[in-house]
Amino acid sequence: MLISPVRLNLLSFKGANGLSVKKMLPNPQDYMYQPLCTSFEESEKKEKEYKDKVNSLCILKNGKLHPLIKEHLDESRFIFEFENQKPMCDTIKNAIQSQIIEARDFDSKLFHSTDTTQTREKILKNGFDPKFISRTKFGPGFYFAYTEGDALEYNSAKLKARCKGKCARINGAYYDKIVSMPITKSIEDFIGLEPCGYPVGKFNYEICSKILNEYVRNLFIEDLGYDLAYGSDRTTTCIVAHNPNAISEIEAF
Question: Is 152 within the bounds of a domain?
Answer without folding.
Answer: yes
